[in-house]
Amino acid sequence: MKNEYQPLTATLLDTLATIVGPDNLSTAEADRSQRAFDVSSHTPRLSDVVVWPQTADQVAAVLKFANEQQIPVTAWGAGTSVEGNPIPLFGGILLSTEKMNAVIQVHADDLQVTVEAGKKYKELNQELEPLGLFFPPDPGGDATIGGMLANNAAGPKAVKYGACKDNVLRCQVALADGRIIQVGSRSIKQSSGYDLLHLFVGSEGTLGVITEATLKLLPLPKYVSAVVASFDAVGAAVQAVVKIKGGGLDPAALEFIDAQTIAMINTVGGLSLDHNHTLFMEFHATHESALHLGLERVKQICTELGARTFTATTDPAERKKLWYGRHHAYDYAQEYYVDKKLLTLDAAIPISHYPAIVEQIEQSLSKHNVAGHMLGHAGDGNMHVLLPYDDSNYGRAVAFHKELIQRALELGGTATGEHGVGIGKVGYMRQEHGPALDVMRSIKQTLDPNNILNPGKIFPGERTSS
Q1: Is the pLDDT of residue 2 over 60?
Q2: Using an 8 Å Cβ cutoff, are 145 and 124 in contact?
Q3: What's the pLDDT score for residue 463?
Q4: Of 42, 406, 58, whose CA–CA distance to 209 is shortest?
Q5: Which of 253, 247, 331 is closest to 293 using CA atoms?
Q6: Residue 363: left (phi > 0), alpha (psi -120 to 50), or beta?
Q7: Core-most of 182, 244, 316, 352, by most CB within 10 Å?
Q8: 153 near 137, Cβ under 8 Å?
Q9: What's 332's DSSP letter?
Q10: Region 47-65: what's the mean pLDDT?
Q11: Do the strands 373-376 and 341-348 form a parallel or antiparallel pair, or are they unpaired?
Q12: Is 22 exposed, middle or buried (0-12, 13-18, 19+ CB in 10 A)?
């Protein structure tokens, strides 16, 4: 796929302004700079213009215009991704869904909600709470629904409730040629034609722009308990993960955090957790007796494996404090390593191989003499490693990254469990997918023949600058 794009002239900008309205377009450097990066350490890139469409028809019209003029378009939600997914590598149009943030309809009896793509999921759950409902995916950053779907975001609760792909029923999508299509259905059971819904989920805005979605909801759990267990040995903590999952205990969240990360969270976040390898867990139940029985079994497993501490709480304030520390680990790392950048990894493997990937990480960190923080959604085999780096150890950090991905693939896993490909994982796509990557290219070519949609992402070998 070639990237030969046209510059945005004054005349073309005037045409754009007629599509979205002059108040919904900006070439100001401040607006472009604010949307030139995400929370990753990937190099920011300025778009030529930011547009804020307010309807799906406007999104479609912008894409049709850009396709006809061969101008790249990068969709933007909230910039919370960590792989450079929404960075406009080739300039052009930055299409922000920030003004498309309405809840269209709550289908309470069906446990569904239809929202515009720019709705932030935390705000959505706040609005759903009085109805006793919630949308389960919880990636941590205040992401938009459109961005979460485009990235197939997940988070800690995916171990019980699944990722975004498991919690969406229908999407409205604007295509590069200006068509607006509906994919999926509000019916829970769907067996009609190709599954185009899940083609767009996880496509990172390279096949179309999601403008609206109907999501699955769940009743808020009646009984919730947070559990923290700490271990002297990392191997014991990881074995506890495997046993808890294998014991049919169905945790709503099961997180592994190594001792170095706990120390960082305590220092920056002001917590006082036991300075050891730690499991954060959460359990949901409809009956209090079932919750207590499960907690007793979890305590037994952790005690048998030599847990140093084991604490369970049903107090909402205590739970919130604990999860705030976990959710903000990346932010804490940025503050802790203020003079360094962060390389973030999110390989995933089958749960039975979690001990093997932890062993690989420990060996590789030592081999390359780099510092690293392990924290992961252990319950579904997802491991994150935060690597602080600067010019002095960048090469060693990259070597570590490569070895970890290689090992994850050898174990039947993937280069990215939830962060998406973006910029950082492009180089591993051929290794992971082989000839299937060519099929992906064919689909991309069919839906986006001029390669205007988020170019430079997912597919290796494309230029990354204009």
Answers
A1: no
A2: yes
A3: 43
A4: 58
A5: 247
A6: alpha
A7: 244
A8: yes
A9: H
A10: 98
A11: unpaired
A12: exposed
